[in-house]
Amino acid sequence: MTKMTDGTPAERPTPVADLIDLSGRTAIVTGAAVGIGYGIAYRLAEAGAAVVVADLDGDGAEAAAKQLVADGFEAVAVQADVADEQDVRAMVRAAVDRFGGVHILVNNAGIYPAIPVVGQSLADFRRVIDVNLTGVFLCVREVAEQMIVQGAGGRIITVTSIDALHPSAVGLADYDASKHGVWGFTKNVALELAPHGIAVTAIAPGGIATPGATARAGALPQGVDLEQLAAQFVARIPMGRLGDPDEIGRVALFLASDLAAYMTGTQVVVDGGALLR
Predict the structure, then answer these.
(1) Bridge partners, 200 (sequence order)
(2) What structural domains and CATH numbers belong to the chain?
(3) What are 267's strand-pairing partners?
(4) What is the per-residue pLDDT across 76-113, written as a single tens digit (0 to 9) for each?
(5) Separation between Cα atoms, residue 184 and residue 206, nearest integer Å
(6) Rounded alpha-carbon distances, angstroms, from residue 245 to 16, 104, 144, 248
(7) Active-site residue list
(8) In 3D, which of 125, 142, 206, 143 has the Cα closest to residue 169?
(9) Over the stretch 115-152, which tens digit does the pLDDT of each residue have?
(10) Angle at 65 (CA atoms; ends 104, 159), nearest 5 degrees
């Protein structure tokens, strides 16, 4: 038996398998049809959580949820625009009606059109803020209210970006503004919700190989050498490669589980060392 320094018996630590067991918990993951969102949804489902796969792309959400079910997990799809208050309320109701509650929220939905400020329309700027920042507010408000009613605490995780800490490219001023805002919002809400046993944290990914990143690369101006641009980007990453969505999923699982029981108001950077440059 393990003993304390004074010779008294000490309780054995909780087994790791129990710490990451999410059985009996329900998770909502926004933007979960593909990429980072799906990587997160998969890891939470694998750990035993029932997952609400929420996405603006309803067909994509359905396909992702079906794949999770085919893999032996519990999941349901919900089409939702996180910038729409009624959609967010319906998303939370769907989770409660189907699974009885909400215990984990992952705010992953986000957009990042590359548009320089000079020449950018007000509508374009507002859409980025609406999705990336207002959407997080709406999801957190609705889920936090449900978690407080449940009285069992919970976990709220928001996917920010290394751009919440340092700009990565010209043309992302609106995106950077939204992500800086989300990081500030995360810290303040962590203070507000801690007395209710709700931990609020964030993940700041660097360059991750996702379908969204590929689509954005395809929209580059004519004459831009995509391969050269990609090589230059990777060269700035000390680990010498892009990340995989599952590498964000693993961190989300850590933050959603009891491995992170004493963490709130913090942001985990997952960038292959990019911010060290």
Answers:
(1) 156
(2) 16-209+244-269 (3.40.50.720)
(3) 202
(4) 999 999 999 999 999 999 999 999 999 999 999 999 99
(5) 19
(6) 23, 19, 26, 5
(7) 175
(8) 206
(9) 999 999 999 999 999 999 999 999 999 999 999 999 99
(10) 40
